[in-house]
Design goal:
- The chain has about 210 residues and is an alpha/beta fold.
- The protein contains seven helices and eight strands.
- The longest helix is centred in the first third of the chain and has 14 residues, at about 55-70.
Length: about 210
Amino acid sequence: MTRPLVISDCDEVLLYMVAPFRDWLGEQHGVIFDMSGGDFISAMKHRDTGEMVERADMWRLLNLFFDGEMHRQGPVAGMIDAMAVLREHADVVVLTNLLDHRQDARRRQLADHGLDLRVFTNQGPKGPALKAILDEYRPSRAIFIDDLAQHHGSVADLAPDVGRLHLCAEPTLAPHIDCAHVAGHAHARIDDWPQALPWLLGRLHA
């Protein structure tokens, strides 16, 4: 029998992203980044003028961060220990919404933190990409972990038998995003790894 499979997002699940991105924007570009409104599109303002950053410039800055500043990202609290336990019970892969040419950079980034994991890149809803991973691995059971509600909805539509945990470890972001559990698209919402691990193990062995 094949092993169970955990399919995890990276940013705000395995590695912090919002906080280092915010710090870099302030230090290098004079941009204030505030996600308290829960909307990435309106979160960036020029410090000097208070004006919103134009959408094209916003994407340019985000691409600059992922091209040259990923070393700023550190492991989410408790994740390394939890991942070591999970990997005793299941295979683990990463499904991250980055452009495909950054796949190797993300894999190396995780390896630098002791996580030698296979990385799948994706753009858009994650349901189709997750379904392709399931078709390849054919696991005995599977769990999906992500910080964004829309991806849980996509997975719920295409792979409803997959366990779905909504986990957003960034405390400045977690209170302001839609909750996939409340929406009925995730089986649980747990925003820290020490509490998430027992739920995940229970789901793997249910």
